[in-house]
Here is the input.
Amino acid sequence: MKNTILPDALHPALKILRGYDAVHHTDFYETLHIYLKKERNIAETARQMHLHRNTLLYRLKRLEELVPADLDDDRTRLHLLLSFEIVADSIRLTL
Here is the structure.
């Protein structure tokens, strides 16, 4: 049986960021994913992404403008993280 992802189960930010990244050749999708995986730690996120701290802060400010998500809300962060994992798992299953 083929696995399908219910689009309504995923946080809408993922679709927004994928679309924005494709059009503008940016990397906001990965930035948000790593930022959340690193528990919103600026230094660790910048280090893993090989970015200057100020570059990361700029990206995070732009993310706030692009995405309808309150990253201070623990449920929103959980929803985003689970959405990232579901997408990653579905990609691995199709390979």
In short: The chain has a mean pLDDT of 90. Residues 74-94 form the longest helix (21 residues). The CA atoms of residues 42 and 53 lie 7 Å apart. Helices lie at 12-24, 28-37, 42-49, 53-66, 74-94.
